[in-house]
Model the fold of this input.
Amino acid sequence: MPLSKIAGIGKYLPERVVTNNDLKEYMETDDAWIQERTGIKERRFAKRTEETTTTMGVEAAKIAIERAGITAQDIDFIVFATLSPDYFFPGCGVLVQRALKMKEVGALDVRNQCSGFVYALSVADQFIKTGMYKNILVIGAEKHSFGMDYSTRGRNVSVIFGDGAGAVVLQPTEKEGQGILSTHLHSDGESAEILAQYNPGSHANHWMETPVADYNDAPIGEMFMSHQMIDKNQNFPFMDGPSVFKKAVVKFPEVIAEALSKNGYSPADINMLIPHQANLRIAQFVQQKLKLNDDQVYNNIQKYGNTTAASIPIALCEAWENGKIKEGDLVCLAAFGSGFTWASALLKW
Done:
């Protein structure tokens, strides 16, 4: 059974740079406050009406396809990971197929938030290994800037996120010592609501100990998105930051160790760890826990913020472009996020 390799990789970042000081216009915050808690200095925001999650994914995909030495017509399957799709439905995968004028290929959308790209990569890996497809386009893209609460009330969440996209083309390889060695996927929904965006949704507040009474008498259809939800600021993401941090610093090292153990490696063997860019403090904790040096871990959250499903492919692409990943290197990808879900992938470049 052949392994699958990353044959081409690309990224796209919007032109607009938003610094921590720029956010002072909208909320009570400052550069020191944000950097101390997240390590972030700036992030990118997409053009409001000209750029979407799909269009950014398409730009990253074009680069990945070209670097793979193929054309869009050679792609035979698409896996698109995002939590911020252009539409509630349909998903972004079919929009990419249309934008790149591809043949009528299958398109799958993955909704695993920060772990989305590794989950998507794992799905594509299985299709390659079974021989079902030969050229799979895997995209992680996000446009967070249009849906955050840019006020002092929402600053704990809104200062973290940015926009961008990354993409890879996965192909089979017979070359010894190359390709994805294994992927590892996990979830635990016990605390799903401590990092979530509840609305719009069909939950009808059933997860609350005391559901909002006035929703019970709401007209049919009004519970999906109502003026009441907007008035109560219930249409923005919610995060219990300390609880997420505590879980992440446990599961990140665990899932990395799982991948290494599966393939007979130790942390010292890693040439490059690409963690999901959630919080620089989490990445630094994981680095210390695994006793990795600075050359073994790549972080770019300082420049781009947390781009959720896009963060790993953006960082992977940037590390490769900067010559920090070379042929034969042992590369580990790891993510933790909403759900909770967490995942890792170990590959030989």
